[in-house]
Amino acid sequence: MADLLVEDVAVDLDGTPVLRGVDLHVPSGSLLALLGPSGCGKTTLLRVIAGFLDPHRGRVALAGNDLVGAAGAVPIEKRRIGIVPQEGALFPHLDVAANIGFGLGRRSRGRHERVAELLDLVGMAPFADRMPAELSGGQQQRVALARALAPGPDLVLLDEPFSALDAGLRAELREDVRRVLHAAGATAVLVTHDQAEALSIAELVAVMDGGRIRQCAAPVELYRTPVDVAVAGFVGEAVVLAARQDRGTVTTALGRHPVHGRGPVDERVGRGPVGGPEGGVRGHVVLRPEQVHLLPNGQGVPAEVLTSWFYGHDALVELRLVGDPETRLLARCSGDLPAPGPIGVRVAGPVLFQPQEG
Ligand SMILES: Nc1ncnc2c1ncn2[C@@H]1O[C@H](COP(=O)(O)OP(=O)(O)OP(=O)(O)O)[C@@H](O)[C@H]1O
Ligand SMILES: [Mg+2]
């Protein structure tokens, strides 16, 4: 298998820039999740990589060979890329085995064995003779994955392959897809809207917005040290508080906090506006609800419980600060739900500081 390199890829559609200089590197054998809001350009990027669309500029290389670049474009069928679309991708008049074998050529040697191997890999051996219309949505997506993998592609592209499925089936199939891709040693790009899916399934997550990659990092790094407030809000629940940074400490209505010591955000510190009589740099901090710890009333910073949402494994609690009623916080709590009313809060661990623009 092979690593994927995308360099400065730009696409205009109907005169509107849709991709504005996309850079991406997916190491050989790893799974990258491409996460971003509707319309940000995810499918367009996959179409460029697959060869359905030529970019206006930029380079795409697979295993060190240019697919698109200065020397022109390699045709789709020579790219060795497998594609798993959203849904409805199977040939309705072919049974499961014939769908999986479609890309192998009718008379190719070893075809039967290869189809049997893939049927096993995706757990569909008992269904080899079924027609697509006789399968559940999850079974159909397993067959679509097997079909994409059958010719032994260098790269697999999956465009929201679980979006038509209900939550339970999604989680199950997600795990199967990860296992199957790893077993096949495939390099893969998986498009998703779902941040929990992206963080849980992939080695790398790229957050895309407005035709650009805003950040690409390992899931833990992305969650803990997002480059800005927008990315933070896109990968999980974020608490955003007005803050001031002065000589390495950040102060909010919840006290003083250590700052995450890395990332492009830190390079901008010191160049933001210098604010008010207190001095220092004004901006915002971003932290996660699990960093907001609840204390008995009378300890920590006084707050008031407004609402809570119980999710089974944990709960989210919405709070308002007594000294600053405009400031709302979310806390994640795993014990008993606090009753609405007075409580104390404390922030644990480092926060992300973003200086105010301008
Ligand atoms: N053929 C086209 N002509 C003009 N604009 C297009 C065309 N195809 C897509 N677009 C625009 O390009 C932008 C990106 O579309 P794209 O399909 O890549 O988004 P996406 O991130 O895959 O969204 P979704 O999550 O909804 O699938 C959108 O604003 C869309 O309206
Ligand atoms: Mg799309």
The end-to-end span amounts to: 46 Å
Summed up, the domain count is: 2
CATH class of the largest domain: Alpha Beta
User: Could you describe the largest sheet, including whether it forms a barrel?
Assistant: 6 strands, mixed
Helix/sheet category:
alpha+beta
> Regions with pLDDT < 50 over 5+ consecutive residues?
262-277
What percent of residues are in strands?
35-45%
Form type: globular
Query: Number of helical runs?
Result: 9
Bound molecules: adenosine-5'-triphosphate, magnesium ion
Can you walk through the features of this model?
The chain is α+β, with helices and mostly antiparallel strands. The protein has two domains: 4-230, Rossmann fold (3-Layer(aba) Sandwich), CATH 3.40.50; 238-355, OB fold (Dihydrolipoamide Acetyltransferase, E2P) (Beta Barrel), CATH 2.40.50. Helix content is 23%, strand content 36%. It contains nine helices and 21 strands. The strands form four sheets. A six-stranded mixed β-sheet has the order 7-8-9-3-10-11, with helices on both faces. It has a five-stranded antiparallel β-sheet with strand order 2-1-4-5-6, covered by helices on one side. Strands 14-13-12-15-21 form a five-stranded antiparallel β-sheet. The longest helix has 18 residues, at 167-184. Mean pLDDT is 89; it is low at 262-277. The structure holds adenosine-5'-triphosphate and magnesium ion. The site of adenosine-5'-triphosphate has 12 residues, from helix 1.
